[in-house]
Amino acid sequence: MLRSETEGILELMTQGRHEEVVLWSEPEVGYRGIIAIHDTTMGPALGGTRFWNYKSERAAVLDALRLSRGMTYKAAISGLKLGGGKSVIWSEGHNGDREEIFHAHGRAVESLKGRYITAVDVGTSPEDMEFVAKETNYVVGLPGSCGDPSPSMCSTSTALGVCHGIKACAAQRYGTSDLSSRHVAIQGLGAVGYNVCKDLVTQGAQITVTDLDTRRVQRVVCEFGAEVAEPEAIYDVCADIFAPCALGAVINDETINRLNFDIVAGSANNQLAQSQVHSTALHERGILYAPDYVINAGGLINVYGELHGWSTEQIKDKVTGIYDTLLWIFGLAESEGIPSDEVANEVAESRIVDARALLEKR
Questions:
Q1: Given this model, what pLDDT does residue 205 score?
Q2: What is the pTM of this model?
Q3: At the top level of CATH, which class does the domain 158-348 belong to?
């Protein structure tokens, strides 16, 4: 686990069992990139590229480490033959041409010769991936494909998996997956959050939403009749379900005791600021938690399907299977009396250990 921001990067890599971190700089075009490879036991590391204005270089590295580890677990729990990786481009103060920045990123990805495959993530687009693809073949999510897990045109999106995950949570907590009488508070109205809203309203749910971008909020209010909460007030909304669909660490020491929800289930990565501490706190409060890398695996499944030539129906079937995966995890957690996040970690880790043992026998 990545426990402390005061520890050295090599120490954090050792704790998290990361294989490799690549730092790549091309100052002449304004590119500063970090690629973290967590584990390639199950297959090549796959994970998107995040373009973000981090507070510091260390914060960027820590985010890459955390996110890459989550991708390993996401692939393992979903039964995909992939490892976990992630790359971040630190955008702070950059004045470079975006096209040239992503060409440089492509060269960084190419240097790993297939150990890492990239795709879109927060702050990047399929068009950015076109620039990356000029320098490397190890990229998915190009325009016209289903590799971008966010747009509504791709039926096998992250949002589809999240909505099926929310239904699984409802079935576990209330005995029925019917959402027509449920109230969901949604934090973050980007491409995934918007589609989660759309799907939930279609199923009759009441929604309260928030986002720092008031244009996004207004769109959801106009289209779906959503109620609105101020960004900081979303934690105090009295609703059945909280769906974090923005950035991570929103369940933390300051927010956890404010939650008035039965369920936490959303698309954001690393929702728990401290995984063990806050998953235990949710468990003790009787709040059902859908482990983020389980419920938000739809995007990774999409990309995997693209790599292996799956049909749209094959991808959709795999994504909707998140419902059964979560019910299975909840059942194990209930029988063992431990948090669902702990069970998911155990399952993912055991699959990686088994795969490693199989490789060693060859």
A1: 98
A2: 0.91
A3: alpha beta
